[in-house]
Backbone:
């Protein structure tokens, strides 16, 4: 049986990147490393649509979030956190752990936080030093309107800090055009690398806030050091240099394809997947879906865990369950990064068989046909 990884992180890694990871370990203070970090940094700027520096930190995505908060927001300051799911909740938890007062702006799971909600929060809290948002809310599959937030935050002294960990490389993320000050990404989602690296872009306004925050409450995650070192394509501490060397290959794929094409490819696949899923009588969970994944509700009376374990055990298809209160209620099917139409086709085919097996009234082939038709007409 062939194993297919279709979770919204980690995601499959291209063969040419895996081959890089098989190469011998090398020394990190070397011309070879500087060259790799330069290539990665320039290609990340392309993927982020920014001219600002993008630093690479050895940690998972949450480490990048922590670096952003600790470096930018002084202790005792106030931040507005826009929360549409578990990852928005993580912003709140990171802020609280670092002594930042949080104003939570929430919406029901499956919906997006509207720019109007943010406008109201900014009116009520003119003293907020930052706004934390999530581009693609991986817990629910929702896409938030970062461009809309950016227009509002740009008019204030606050900085806009965005978690684009599952969005960057799948959906448009125009950091400079949208006025995003710090944008955090991770290696294991649409950037097609194993877990282990986080990336943070820092705008001029963001860097000013960071330099003005004398009391950064962190040593390792102090972004000032990363910003200083990246000027020479270097890092303050031993980086995961073999991951960075491999990332060169994955980012070149995006660079070669072009971001507009990358986004269009994800959009086409996502639209077709949504057609396939709804043709099976399943309900989409996200009101404003992000194109890196398709999230749908488990049929009434069926625990999504039952569907997921059958998919994995019987067909080698690894999809993800909901988290926390959504556990057992939804299925998350990722099609970001190195996933093509035939991987998604396999997932839909397996899903049909499993739904039929648990007694759901599906016509086997209906989802697959709708998916194929949608792709053919896209
Ligand atoms: C995966 C993910 C994270 C966090 O990631 P870790 O790499 O597990 O620390 C944060 N935010 C979003 C939106 C994610 O999808």
Residues:
């Amino acid at each position: 049986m062939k194993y297919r990884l279709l979770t919204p992180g980690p995601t499959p890694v291209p063969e040419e990147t895996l081959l890089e990871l098989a190469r011998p370990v090398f020394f990190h203070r070397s011309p070879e490393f500087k060259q790799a970090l330069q290539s990665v940094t320039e290609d990340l700027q392309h993927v982020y649509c920014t001219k600002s520096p993008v630093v690479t930190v050895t940690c998972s995505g949450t480490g990048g979030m922590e670096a952003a908060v600790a470096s930018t927001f002084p202790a005792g300051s106030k931040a507005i956190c826009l929360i549409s799911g578990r990852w928005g909740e993580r912003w709140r938890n990171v802020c609280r752990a670092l002594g930042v007062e949080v104003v939570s702006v929430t919406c029901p799971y499956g919906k997006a936080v509207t720019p109007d909600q943010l406008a109201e929060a900014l009116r009520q809290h003119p003293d907020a030093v930052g706004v934390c948002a999530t581009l693609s809310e991986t817990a629910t599959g929702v896409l938030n309107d970062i461009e809309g937030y950016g227009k509002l935050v740009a008019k204030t002294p606050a900085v806009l800090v965005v978690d684009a960990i599952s969005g960057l490389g799948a959906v448009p993320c125009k950091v400079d055009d949208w006025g995003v000050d710090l944008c955090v990404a991770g290696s294991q989602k649409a950037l097609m690398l194993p877990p282990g690296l986080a990336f943070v872009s820092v705008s001029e306004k963001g860097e000013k806030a960071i330099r003005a925050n004398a009391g950064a409450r962190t040593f390792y995650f102090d972004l000032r050091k990363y910003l200083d070192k990246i000027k020479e394509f270097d890092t303050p501490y031993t980086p995961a240099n073999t991951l960075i060397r491999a990332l060169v290959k994955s980012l070149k794929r995006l660079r070669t394809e072009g971001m507009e094409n990358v986004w269009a490819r994800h959009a086409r696949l996502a639209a077709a997947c949504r057609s396939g899923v709804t043709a099976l009588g399943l309900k989409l969970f996200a009101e404003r879906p992000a194109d890196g994944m398709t999230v749908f509700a488990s049929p009434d009376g069926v625990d999504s865990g039952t569907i997921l374990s059958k998919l994995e055990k019987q067909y080698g298809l690894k999809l993800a369950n909901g988290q926390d209160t959504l556990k057992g209620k939804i299925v998350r099917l990722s099609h970001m990064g190195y996933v093509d139409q035939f991987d998604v086709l396999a997932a839909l085919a397996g899903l049909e068989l499993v739904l039929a097996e648990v007694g759901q009234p599906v016509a086997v082939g209906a989802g697959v046909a709708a998916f194929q038709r949608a792709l053919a007409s896209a």
